[in-house]
Amino acid sequence: MHILVVNDDGPPSSRLSPYIRPFVNALQNAGHLVSVAIPAASRSWIGKAHLIEASLKATYVPPDAFHDDATWDESTTTNQDRNTPKPEWVVIHNGTPASCVQLGLYNLFADREPIDLVISGPNHGRNASTIYNLSSGTVGGALEAATCGKRGIAISFGSKDPQHIDTIHAASRLAVKLVNHLYRNWDERVELYNLNIPMRADVETRPIRYTRALPYYWARGYLYAEETVDKANGDIQTSQADSCLITGTKPANVAGGSRLKERNFTWAAKLSDMKKALQASEEGTDAHTVLNGSTR
Question: Superkingdom of the source (predicted)?
Answer without folding.
Answer: Eukaryota
